[in-house]
Specification:
Shape: globular
Strand order of the largest sheet: 3-2-5-10-7-8
Strand content: 25-35%
Number of helices: 14
Helix content: 10-25%
Structural class: alpha+beta
Bound molecules: beta-D-mannopyranose
Distance between the termini: 76 Å
Radius of gyration: 29 Å
Number of strands: 42
Length: 828
Amino acid sequence: MNKIISLNGEWQIRWNDGERGERIARVLAGDVKWNRAWPANVPGSVHESLIAAGVIPEPNLGTNVLACRWVEETIWYYRRTFEAPELAAGERAWVFFESLDLAASVYLNGKSLGSHANAFHPLRVEATDALRAGTNEIVVQVEAGLFHTMDRAADGYGLRLNHRLAKTPWLRKTQSQQGWDWSPRLMNVGIPGDVRLEIASGVRWENLSVTTDLSLETKRGQVKARLFAENLGQAELSAEILLRIDETGQTERRQVTLAPGMNTLEASLSMENPGLWWPVGHGSQTRYTVRVELHNASGQFGGDTRRVGFREVRINQLPHPVEGRFFTVEVNGKPIFCKGGNYVPVDLILSRINRSRHEVLIDLALEANCNFLRVWGGGVYEGADFYDLCDERGILVWQDFIFACFKYPATDEHFLADVCVEATHQVRRLAHHPSLIIWCGNNEIEWGSWEWEYEKGVAYPDYALYHLVLPRILRAEDPGRYYQPSSPFSPDGETANHNLWGDQHPWQVGFGDNDFRKYREMPCRFPNEGGILGPNSLPAVRAALAGGEEKPGSFAWELHDNSLTAWDNIPAYSPDLMLEQWLGKKVEDLTIEDYVYWAGVVQGSGLAEYIKNFRRRMFDSSAAVFWMLNDIWPCSRSWTIIDALANRTPAFWPVRRAFQRESVVVVRENDTVRIFGVNDGPEIEAELHFGLLELKGTYPFERTIPVKLPGNASTVLAEFSATEWDTLGITKHVAFARLVHKGSEVARDALVLPFFREMEWPQANVGVEVANGFATFTSNSFAWRICLDLDGDRPLPDNFFDVYPGIPTVLPWPESLGEPKILRWGNP
Ligand code: BMA
């Protein structure tokens, strides 16, 4: 029988920096002034506790993060007392930690129970001998990892200085916490998971992992439950597994025998014609509750549930008729164009992330018309809530194992063994989620070995980890899931970031080359990272600069800026140069409001180019996944469309429009202008208006034709010669297209050829009127990037949009939004 005593709740913390504060011997001797301790909540972190106690400031704001640095250079003692019953004959006890961050030693009543240094898998230590009937004292010594790697090598892993300091590749925790281009250094420390005392006799239930399988041909679903349980006795023991689907009542019972020690027990059932799980926009997200119990005549040993879904996923990598291979996600036999961004840790302090933080971000991703998120390999395996929300909302998830950009010490046998435990744990934990479609070995390590400072052509030390060890674990634990060794990765022995094989990180643009018109030529099969820097929302930029000088270039600005400005392998201050190149504006001349608007115009335009280019190539290209969806803290400049305050950045709006179900894309290929109609939904018939638009307000060339947009496809709807455009002047004219369906405009696009600063923007005078729940915007000339809001905290129908001369732009405008206020536009 299993008894659980939760050890969550209030603990106390004390500190030692190697010189001052209490040392562990004194702590164990009970010779500690606990009356001076700070309260600490578990699950939680030292940073959270110290913020609550007023000892450190909120690291998100201004330069506060620097005042928090001593926390990661300190050894922490967590302590609490608890009451335990006397163990009955045959009973044993364990202390279970769901997560410890990072290097931790556990003591019960002064006795050492064990230690641990991996935030990505739990620790269970036996406490039978140390446990007392009555009051017990538990102490956990924990530090962020700096002491743990003190004696490790820093050479040979491709590290920059900050990562040499922490020896990041040795640390099994969030890699970006030691500093990344979009994140400051703030190494977490604490007990971020549940803690409990487990008492068992007979059989100890440990864990459950559930996988599903679906055959589209036989319309049959298969549920397989594997449960992990320890027979604590010396003799074999008979038991029964009960497997039930709550929604249908379908039940299977299986008699099993448990040998002494750990057992993996299996039970399965098949379902005729189960409801299917689809990504959002393609069908519903049917889920079933699988209930599993283990018992015998004397009672139940344990039980648990998992929510599953049935879908068949195939990554179609058949040869492409022209060159390379396709890389298309097919769900239930249907090709799905993947629209989304990269998901990075939601907070500098991971223990502050909860279900609602994920929910807000996922709902904003849906608002931006995304159906896909990549959980990036320098961050975390997200908490259960994240995957559950993705299951529920129909978001496809690409999950990297947490290895990124360095070489890892996988030739060290302890490291490798620990990583195997981690991978097995994570694969079992996430196996039942229908949203999870891809496991990937790492971020960019394969690419590094092909094209960065890694020794070219030499197998890197962790090669076997990604090519052999992880895929074997996956095959044993979750054989139905697609795996690839790295992102980007190309099969057939092609260089890892080849455009025409596998997935891509098209960083040719965005890292130094700011000319995002080059996206228009890129044929990537599955672009999985790529982006343009820009501002956060105005409130987030203000939070970043709080207490510092509120202007570009201040100390707080630099601290919250993306570190690309300082990289030595790209032009200095390249993101600043982007504003000069596109707008002829110098960042230091701008007010914060000007900066948020103008840098937002540039970033939004760049991301929209990225998305439109790949969507119009559907399914030669099968994704438009950009870098990155969300931020870890408020930034003066970052890659995101949603900032750390969960506000929409200016780039949110163009991204959202570019991801719309129906979309038009205007392209110039040599002397021809082509209009593509992109449609993720079922076939529609519509009217296409297209031609040349003079910015001043005339339409020198204009056509209207009936068009058909076939379902789940991109089609050329119209084309015309570009000669007239060249003659009339590309700085005064844009090519445009508007798609009108059932009397309303559903999509539009305007192609601008020169840099924005080269365009001859006319004066604009935009008017707006509200009637019957609609706001109508009008202008006599082309009004460029009309801005209604820089705060990003409201679900506006649109923002940063254009108004075409003489054609009203009509937006639904519920009363709850108040009067629409036009803050500014881009032309004079
Ligand atoms: C790629 C990513 C991240 C990084 C991003 C932007 O290398 O995988 O490591 O943050 O570029 O610099």
